[in-house]
Design goal:
This protein has helices at 42-58, 71-81, 87-105, 115-127, 132-151, 179-188, 226-239, 251-259, 264-268, 317-327, 347-354, 356-363, 371-383, 388-395, 400-409, 411-432, and strands spanning 12-15, 21-26, 32-34, 191-193, 195-199, 205-210, 216-223, 244-246, 275-276, 281-284, 287-290, 296-299, 308-311. By secondary structure, it is of the alpha+beta class. A hairpin with a 5-residue loop joins strand 11 and strand 12 (296-299). The termini are far apart.
Length: 448
C-alpha cells in the first residue's frame, strides 16, 4: 500500500535490467526477502506486495524460503518426529515413503507441489501396477504430512492433496464365518498329513505319504516344485487317501480369537492371569508387535479403548480349560498361547504350523485371513442387536466409525429389533382384549 507521497509503506518494487519488476519486503522477523518470482508490470508487483501484507496481517503468510525444503526430507522428518506411532505403523510409513512417494516426489520442493502434480503421481503409480489399496495408503500419508506443513509449520497456505476419492480404499467385503465354520476351523488347524517330500538329484521332488494303518507309499509322479508336492499331499489328506495326525494346540486360540473379537497382537499377549474362566471373561492389557526385523515388542493396545475386559461364551470355556491344563505353565505370568519354543507366537510360525492357506481352502473360504475371525466375532455381536456403545467396548474402539459399519451391515440385528417390537405390540393387544371377543367389534368396516 502506498503513502500519500507515492512511497510504499510496506516493501518496495524495483525494475530489473530485464525490464521485469522485483518485489522486496520485510518478514515478521525483520529480515528482507525477495518474492520467488518477478512480474511483467509494476502494477502486478505492487498488487503482489499488497497480498503479502494482507497475509501477514491475517497470519496466513508463509516464508517462501521454508517452502524450498524437499518433500522427501520433510516427510522423513515427519515420520521420525511422530513419537506415538506404533512400530509397525512407523515401518509402514517409512516403506510407503521409500517405495511409492520419494521416487516420484521426494526431490520436489514443498512450495512447488500442486494438485495436478499429485494427480500425475497417482496415475504413475497406477500405470506401474501399484494396487489401489497401496495407492490410497500412500496418498493418505502424503496428505497427513502436507497438512502438518499447512497447519503447524505454516510452510504452505493450502494442502495440494485435493484429489477426490484418492484416499479411499474400495476393499472387497471380508468373509464372515458361521458359528459352525469357526468350530470346524478350530479342528482343521490342528490336522497334519503324514508324509515327506525329498528333493532328487534331478532337481525334482518326490512325495511319500502314509496310508491308513501306517504303511508308507511313494507317489507315482515327481514334482517340479515343493509347493506342488505339498498341495498334492494335503489334497490326499482331505480326500482320505493319506493319513493325518491331530494337534489341538491351537483349537482354543481360534475359538477365543473369534468369539472374543481379539486382534492378533492382543491374543498372543494374553497371560494366564488375564483369563477368568469362572466369570467367563478375558482381560486385554497389551499387544505384541512384530517388527520387520523379527523383533517382538510388547506394547500398549491399539488405543485406550483397547484395554478392556471381554465376556466369552460359556461354550468355549471347556476348550480353554483343556488348553490351560495341557499347554500353559502354572505361573500367573505364563503366556496362554506360546510358540513351540515357549516364546510369543509369531505370525510366520502360526502360518507354517497350520498351513493356513490349505486349511482355508479345505474350509471353502480360500481368501480367509486370521483377522477375519475378529470380523466374524464383531458381526455376530452386531447381530445380537446390542447398542453402539456396547459394541464399541467389545471391539476395543474409541470411535464410532467401525462399530457403525457393523451395525449398518447387520440385517439380523434389525430383524431382532422388529421382532421385539412385534412382541410388545402383541402383548399390548392381548392385554387390552377380551377373551370372549372374536374381534368383530373392533373391526374397521367401510362407510358408505
Amino acid at each position: 500500500m502506498a503513502n500519500k507521497d507515492g512511497h510504499r509503506r510496506f516493501g518496495n518494487v524495483r525494475k530489473l535490467p530485464s525490464g521485469r519488476f522485483q518485489t522486496r519486503y520485510p518478514g515478521p522477523d525483520g529480515r528482507i526477502r525477495s518474492a520467488p518470482k518477478t512480474f511483467a508490470t509494476k502494477r502486478d508487483a505492487e498488487r503482489a506486495l499488497t497480498l503479502i501484507e494482507g497475509q501477514m496481517i491475517s497470519g496466513e503468510w508463509t516464508d517462501p524460503e521454508r517452502s524450498k525444503v524437499k518433500l522427501g526430507d520433510y516427510a522423513a522428518k515427519w515420520i521420525e518426529q511422530r513419537q506415538k506411532l506404533r512400530p509397525r505403523t512407523r515401518e509402514l510409513y517409512a516403506w510407503l515413503l521409500r517405495k511409492h512417494i520419494a521416487p516420484h516426489l521426494g526431490a520436489v520442493a514443498l512450495g512447488q507441489l500442486s494438485t495436478p502434480m499429485i494427480r500425475d503421481w497417482l496415475s504413475a503409480l497406477a500405470d506401474a501396477g501399484v494396487s489401489a489399496t497401496s495407492r490410497a495408503k500412500a496418498y493418505r500419508l502424503l496428505r497427513a504430512v502436507l497438512m502438518t506443513a499447512v497447519d503447524e509449520d505454516k510452510i504452505l497456505t493450502r494442502n495440494p492433496c485435493r484429489v477426490r476419492g484418492a484416499g479411499t480404499e474400495d476393499a472387497p467385503e471380508r468373509p464372515t464365518l458361521t458359528v459352525a465354520q469357526v468350530f470346524e476351523l478350530a479342528e482343521r488347524v490342528g490336522v497334519r498329513p503324514v508324509g515327506n517330500i525329498r528333493k532328487l538329484d534331478s532337481g525334482e521332488f518326490r512325495l511319500r505319504y502314509q496310508v491308513k494303518g501306517g504303511t508308507m507309499r511313494r507317489f507315482p509322479q515327481t514334482f517340479a516344485t515343493r509347493p506342488e508336492a505339498e498341495h498334492v499331499l494335503w489334497k490326499m489328506a482331505e480326500d482320505g487317501h493319506a493319513d493325518v495326525i491331530q494337534d489341538d494346540r491351537l483349537r482354543a486360540f481360534i475359538l477365543l480369537a473369534a468369539f472374543a473379537s481379539l486382534r492378533w497382537g492382543e491374543i498372543t499377549a494374553l497371560r494366564q492371569c488375564d483369563l477368568d474362566l469362572t466369570n467367563q471373561t478375558v482381560r486385554v492389557r497389551g499387544a505384541y508387535v512384530e517388527r520387520a526385523n523379527g523383533e517382538m515388542i510388547l506394547g500398549p493396545t491399539k488405543s485406550k479403548a483397547g484395554m478392556r475386559t471381554v465376556s466369552i461364551p460359556a461354550a468355549i470355556v471347556p476348550h480353554l480349560v483343556a488348553h490351560m491344563n495341557k499347554y500353559v505353565r502354572p505361573d500367573a505370568d505364563a503366556l496362554v498361547f506360546a510358540g513351540i519354543k515357549g516364546g510369543p507366537l509369531r505370525r510366520s510360525g502360526f502360518n507354517k504350523l497350520t498351513r493356513w492357506s490349505y486349511v482355508a481352502n479345505a474350509l471353502g473360504v480360500p481368501n480367509l485371513h486370521f483377522h477375519d475371525l475378529r470380523h466374524t466375532g464383531n458381526t455376530l455381536a452386531a447381530d445380537m442387536g446390542v447398542s453402539l456403545r456396547n459394541l464399541m467396548a467389545r471391539m476395543g474402539h474409541d470411535n464410532e466409525r467401525a462399530a457403525l459399519r457393523y451395525q449398518h451391515r447387520s440385517a439380523k440385528g434389525d430383524r431382532a429389533i422388529a421382532d421385539g417390537l412385534d412382541a410388545l405390540v402383541q402383548a399390548e393387544q392381548n392385554e387390552g382384549g377380551d377373551e370372549d371377543d372374536d374381534g368383530s367389534a373392533g373391526a374397521l368396516v367401510p362407510v358408505a
